[in-house]
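Aldehyde dehydrogenase family protein: structure tokens wanted.
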Amino acid sequence: MSAARKLLIGGEWVEPDGGHYDVVDPASEAVVGHAPEASRRQVYDAARAARDAFEGWSRTAPRERAAILDRAADLIQRDFSSHAELAQAETGATSGTARGMQVAVGAARFRRYARGALEPVEEGLPPQINEAGPMGRAGVIGALAVRQPVGVVTCITSYNNPWANPAGKVAPALAMGNTVVVKPAPQDPLSVYRMADALQEAGAPPGVVNVVSGAEVGVGEAAVDSPDVDMVSFTGSTAVGQRIGEVCGRTMKRQLMELGGKGAAIVFGDADLDSAVAGIGTTYAFYSGQICTAPTRALVHRSVYDEFVAKLTAYVGFMKVGDPRAQGTVVGPVISAAHRERVEAYVELGRKEGATVVAGGERPGFGTGFYVAPTLLADCTNEMRVVREEIFGPVVAVVPFGGDEDEAVGLANDSEYGLIDYVWSGDVARAFRVARRLRAGGVGVNTVGRNMEAPFGGFKKSGVGRDVGSYALHAYSELQSIVWPG
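Answer:
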């Protein structure tokens, strides 16, 4: 079990005013460790420390910021195995996910933004020739667009990936010269403290990185409404994102929001069904469906509908559910007992709405752990709540369509969400044509793979802004224009 942690405020490890709370392993229900519960005052102290550190850090040479981020990546890699064990214990992730998609991606993001710190921040613009007039004599005006750090950034992270998600916020924010207050998800904050350990050992100056955790809502509220915070970067539910947006709007804080998703996967009659089934089946595997980019809404042409459902049912049958530490396990538990009940309630709702449960639907018979069986709901319509609302669990709903591209696009776009959609078709020209019509921040064509330099973010209620690759550096910066007479 991990030792009780302290808050990181202004370079010092501080005892939490609210004591500690238990972090629970979703697989065994054992206590993993004790996370600190910050008070509102301590969150404000962290933001003030970040404000005090901003001037020095923002003026630090980019190569020095790069060196610190590079060293942090080295240190994360040095302790890779223990980090993966902790991440697995906190999240219930399978061994492959904890190692390859949590800790490894976290280290890679620090490495990526060590390079990012060295990317140019100035862009020369074409000179403008001005005629004589009220603004002065005729002349040539030169211009420069300069990306400047925003200031103090609050990073509020999701529970499904306590390494990749915070690293994807903290690393580009620091690379651009911002200072940060990190408020990790209450379910699995201990990994984020490990990340802070690495940054501190790597040489991050006091106050540049601050971490405050807590299970109480007030901790997150204080991290958003502190007058010392200039920007909030949030990953989580749309409902919480909307509340954060309201608070940020009062003082015009900058926002980056990566919110909910209900990914539509359009499967045309000429699609490679095995490829489509394997891609859509990842919904069950990665984080037990607790991932906003999952293709949870399969829109399948009637000409291949029965075959698709049969293949996906067989695919689900081969997905071993159980102890995430056991070899061969594909689907581990969801994050908590409360979330398990929420997912199960949606499955029952699907039954009542008229969906056919062709796989799953019953709680696995384990003595401990928050397990949900991978579930496939067939014969759905776009009006059902299980099709329209984000379940955030190992559940896929299949909606048949019988018409042309217009019907498929109409069904896919008939959603409040628009994060990532997918298209499977043997006609690549059609797939790209359909992709351009989808109201989503990203579209996978015949793949669920990602290009980690491509902009990431959502349309509609799936978010505001874009990050990943160099786009993250833009997200954590403000544009300043400088003009002069030629």
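The two ends are 66 Å apart (CA to CA). The chain has a mean pLDDT of 96.

Cheers.
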